[in-house]
Amino acid sequence: MDVQKGDVLVLKKKHPCGENKMEVLRSGMDFKLRCKGCGREFMIPRAKIEKNIKQILRDGL
After folding, report:
1. d(Cα 9, Cα 11) in Å, to the nearest integer?
2. Burial class of 36 by CB neighbour count within 10 A (0 to 12, 13 to 18, 19+)
3. From residue 4, how far is each of 18, 26, 32, 43 by CA, in Å?
4. What pTM value is reported for the model?
5. Under CATH, which number does the domain 8-57 receive?
6. Calpha distance 28→13 (Å, rounded)
7. Which of 21, 26, 27 is nearest to 9 (CA)?
8. pLDDT digits (tens, 9 = 90+) for 17-56
């Protein structure tokens, strides 16, 4: 899956604040994401997040 820095991921499950959109700050073996609702930043393993992605939103598209 081609996920790049700056992409916004729409996830199947919601963050505890109620938002399901996360901005990608870093990608590699782990992803560093920022919740678009509350601004919290967290790291999550690639295998776990790839199963949970519903849609990828890119700036130019």
Report:
1. 6
2. middle
3. 24, 8, 11, 15
4. 0.87
5. 2.30.30
6. 21
7. 21
8. 999 999 999 999 999 999 999 999 999 999 999 999 999 9
